[in-house]
Known about the structure:
Blueprint: H1 2-33, E1 39-42, H2 47-52, H3 54-63, E2 68-71, E3 74-75, E4 80-81, E5 84-85, H4 86-95, E6 99-104, H5 115-132, E7 136-139, H6 149-168, E8 172-176, H7 190-197, E9 204-208, H8 209-216, H9 220-226, E10 233-236, E11 238-239, E12 246-247, H10 263-266, E13 270-273, H11 284-299
Parallel strand pairs: 1-2, 1-13, 2-6, 6-7, 7-8, 8-9, 9-10, 10-13
Antiparallel strand pairs: 3-4, 4-5, 11-12
Helix pairs in contact: 4-5, 5-6, 6-7
Organism: Chitinophaga fulva
Pfam families: AP_endonuc_2
Protein name: Sugar phosphate isomerase/epimerase
Amino acid sequence: MKSDFISRRNFLAQSGMTAAAALISSSAFAALAKPRFKMGLQLYTIREAMEKDVAGTLKRVAGLGYQDVETYGFDPAQIGYYGRSAKDFNQLLKDNGLTTASGHYDLFKYLNTPETELLSYVDQCIEGARQLDQKYITWPWLAPEDRNIDKFKLLASRLNTIGARVKKAGLGFAYHNHDFEFIDHGGINGYQIIMRETDPDLVKLQMDMYWIVRAAKKQPVDFFKQQPGRFVMWHIKDMDLKTEDYTELGRGTIDYTKILPDFSMAGMQYYFLEQGGNFRTGDAMDSITENAHFFKRKLRKFL
Length: 303
């Protein structure tokens, strides 16, 4: 009887250990399987829907599994977004379980103005970003008449000035690329000037993967290796095989399974799915739905 009792006790103990191990293993697996980063969306993709119905559109965005959004269209006079005050817009985000890590601000309009005007606008951007709890203020564009070497050098100086102001306010600052930064000007291009003449501690880079592949004719990792840790935000979108226009994720030629694993080298903190146009059905909401589904099925495991 005693031996039977000991055997039964050992069996129960071992069973308990096995169950505990299974729970630990399951918990560890869940931790590993959980995405490291929030799935983001650049709201410019759905600009028409945002103009018509801000509240309803954000509700649909959240329902698709997006967790973070990048804003555009800041109103400095009202410190507002999409016709609402920053406070009201932030509450709308919270109501839908959304956050906003970054915003595209119209800083390019102040490239050629006196520095006092530029910094006055920067201070307004800082106030808006703070009210939304954004981590980054992003310079998104450069006017066509300003895309020459002299203006790129002026841009680099202005980026450093803005970066210092934004950092002092406790926020981050980044520059977003398109295609024009990679036009050759006698052996040098604008992106090289930005990378060389801006302080990496003050000016981070938001990499648009589509334009890197299409315009720079390189892979993102080529830039990551040059300045590891500087590419804190990414725009993720695909390129049509025939036209090289935007297309929905998975329908194009950019192989993100080879790009996303380099997030650590890049220093990536946030990413945003984006599609500027060429929507397959003509409706941007259909495209962000398709992009979200593809990303969650095929790519999110890398991030």
